[in-house]
């Protein structure tokens, strides 16, 4: 038995099964306009956008350790950029979504330089303050409706597709596409060299720095990319809502608190966590929403119990029993004479 | 061979506490230097200053002829400085092999297959290959110390800083670790080793320095240093004339 007999693999049977199942589910979801009702499609569209937001927040907080409670700054910014670019620059809504991403990246650079001076709780509060500055700032712009907000003109809505059913399908596919692109991007990034560096930062910053990882630069790149994609998701959210106001666009509850709930419940610092968390969150919301405030109390209790009993979330519980990884990020050394058991 | 590391009046203080007081010495390429001194003397702080985890107040660090004083830890790691931590700092959510891969890809700059083969070779050398798929967080103390060494070696260092890597090990564990370190030194890596387990240290190093209150108080041939009255008094707490 020599070293030559050892092999390294980055795949596993569980991951291959998960990939096939994932592809089947994706095909079914793409075909939803032919089998699902309007209300269901709207709900699924919303679910996909939350999934995208949660995956992005997880990348930033769960891996880069940037616990922001101010990502609503970029959701709202993206939403407003959709309105501004379509209404004043005459861009097609889909081009405006891309534009919102570019502008989101640009605005996140000075924000990052400012708030990266803060650590821990101060960083979190700093991000929230920035989001409030964004909200107050956009409330001053009278051409975008000031404090009361504005609606997307009918002509722009119709430029997406003239028929309502088609518009709803396109809107649904955009949301599905956004979720798929975000999760794929997160997966490919984490599998790459830079992703390995980011995972090292997640586990131990001191050791990461000593092993050649530039911590500030890695975090900065993650922050800018996350913010740009969050702005694009924000643009998509308000393309579905067709109406924007500062309070709705920069809502800490809708775009950050619920997103943190999803990631914590599902399992922070894993790709699978936000997917499970989103499903749990929507299941709770759809069954309990009629109860009014009790729904929020239940969410709070669930979050507290999870944090005390299972700080690694539902996926953490599953992983501690079965050595599973649906998205194979790691490396596995195969010892000669033994078969790969996963 | 020239000096691979040169400290020039390197100083650091936290308020009234001086952890490095005008440290000045040279380490020649291929040397093995031992560092001893009482707890809290500033030995680990000296490593932090050399690796760039701690910024100095004054003085210079020269590595392979270059002034690296203003470089961050990542850049010094790329240049060829690697270390083990006194309190092991594993990436606990990753496997032993992945821990090694971080060093090989991020510090040594290896890619893909080449990086994987290199990590397997180092793991075999440090006797951690059977544990390759185990999460670093669930290793025993000896295994964690070996992982520290593994990661440092996977960074392909020119200069290896070992911080009390033999502390807390049994005699048998210590003997096999010393053999591993001897092999590494024999392969041409320059070593600076902080150690309280003096007999392990003396098997490897060819020069010793003594540090107390951040100051370098003695330097020279290991056995002569260990037998000097000054060291006995300050390091071992024995009165010189007792």
TrEMBL record, chain A:
InterPro entries: ABC_transp_permease, LivM-like. It comes from the Bacteria. It is found in: Cell membrane. The chain crosses the membrane at residues 14-35, 47-66, 73-91, 97-116, 170-190, 220-239, 259-282, 294-311. The keyword Cell membrane applies. Keywords: Cell membrane, Membrane, Transmembrane, Transmembrane helix. This is Leucine/isoleucine/valine transporter permease subunit.
Automatic annotation (TrEMBL), chain B:
One of its GO terms (cellular component) is plasma membrane. InterPro entries: AAA+_ATPase (IPR003593), ABC_AA/LPS_Transport (IPR051120), ABC_transporter-like_ATP-bd (IPR003439), P-loop_NTPase (IPR027417). Residues 5-238 form the ABC transporter domain. Its EC number is 3.6.3.-. GO terms for biological process: D-alanine transmembrane transport; L-alanine transport; L-isoleucine import across plasma membrane; L-valine import across plasma membrane. GO terms for molecular function: ATP binding; ATP hydrolysis activity; L-isoleucine transmembrane transporter activity; L-phenylalanine transmembrane transporter activity; L-valine transmembrane transporter activity. This is Lipopolysaccharide export system ATP-binding protein LptB. The gene is lptB_1.
């Amino acid at each position: 038995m020599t070293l030559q007999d050892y092999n390294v693999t980055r795949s596993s049977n569980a991951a291959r099964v998960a990939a096939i199942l994932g592809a089947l589910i994706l095909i079914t979801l793409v075909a939803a306009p032919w089998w699902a009702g309007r209300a269901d499609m709207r709900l699924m569209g919303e679910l996909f956008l939350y999934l995208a937001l949660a995956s992005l927040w997880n990348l930033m907080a769960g891996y880069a350790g940037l616990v922001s409670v101010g990502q609503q700054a970029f959701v709202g910014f993206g939403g407003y950029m959709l309105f501004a670019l379509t209404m004043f620059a005459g861009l097609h809504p889909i081009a405006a979504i891309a534009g919102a991403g570019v502008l989101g990246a640009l605005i996140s650079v000075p924000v990052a330089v400012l708030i990266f001076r803060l650590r821990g709780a101060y960083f979190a509060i700093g991000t929230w303050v920035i989001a409030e500055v964004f909200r107050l700032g956009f409330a001053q712009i009278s051409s975008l409706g000031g404090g009361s907000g504005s609606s997307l003109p009918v002509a722009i809505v119709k430029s997406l597709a003239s028929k309502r059913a088609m518009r709803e399908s396109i809107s649904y596919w955009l949301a599905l596409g956004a979720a798929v692109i975000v999760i794929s991007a997160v997966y490919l990034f984490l599998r790459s060299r830079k992703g390995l560096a980011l995972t090292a930062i997640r586990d131990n910053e001191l050791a990461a720095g000593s092993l050649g990882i530039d911590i500030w630069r890695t975090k900065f790149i993650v922050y800018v990319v996350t913010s740009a994609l969050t702005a694009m998701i924000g643009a998509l959210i308000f393309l579905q809502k067709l109406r924007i106001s500062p309070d709705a666009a920069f809502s800490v509850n809708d775009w950050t608190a619920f997103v943190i709930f999803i990631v914590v419940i599902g399992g922070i610092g894993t790709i699978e966590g936000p997917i499970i968390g989103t499903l749990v969150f929507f299941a709770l919301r759809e069954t309990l929403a009629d109860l009014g405030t009790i729904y929020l109390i239940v969410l709070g209790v669930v979050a507290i119990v999870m944090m005390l009993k299972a700080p690694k979330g539902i996926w953490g519980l599953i992983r501690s029993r079965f050595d599973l990884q649906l998205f194979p990020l790691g490396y596995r050394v195969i010892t000669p004479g033994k078969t790969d058991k996963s | 061979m020239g000096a691979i590391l040169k400290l020039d009046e390197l100083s650091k203080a936290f308020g009234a506490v001086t952890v490095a007081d005008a440290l000045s010495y040279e380490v020649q390429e291929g040397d093995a230097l031992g560092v001893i001194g009482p707890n809290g003397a500033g030995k680990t702080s000296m490593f932090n200053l050399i690796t760039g985890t701690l910024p100095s107040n004054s003085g210079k660090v020269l590595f392979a002829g270059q002034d690296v004083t203003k470089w961050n830890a990542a850049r010094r790691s790329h240049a060829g400085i690697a270390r083990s931590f006194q309190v092991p700092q594993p990436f606990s959510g990753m496997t032993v092999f992945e821990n090694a891969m971080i060093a090989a890809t991020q510090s040594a700059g290896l890619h893909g297959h080449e990086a994987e083969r290199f990590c397997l070779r180092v793991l075999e050398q440090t006797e951690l290959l059977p544990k390759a798929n185990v999460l670093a967080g669930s290793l025993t103390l000896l295994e964690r110390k070996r992982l520290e060494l593994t990661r440092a070696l996977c960074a392909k260092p020119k200069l290896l800083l070992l911080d009390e890597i033999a502390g807390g090990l049994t005699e048998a564990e210590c003997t096999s670790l010393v053999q591993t370190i001897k092999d590494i030194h024999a392969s041409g890596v320059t070593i600076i080793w902080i150690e309280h387990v003096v007999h392990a240290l003396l098997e490897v190093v060819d020069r010793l320095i003594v540090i107390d209150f951040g100051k370098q108080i003695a330097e020279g041939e290991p056995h002569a240093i260990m037998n000097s009255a000054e060291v006995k008094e300050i390091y071992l707490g024995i009165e010189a004339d007792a």
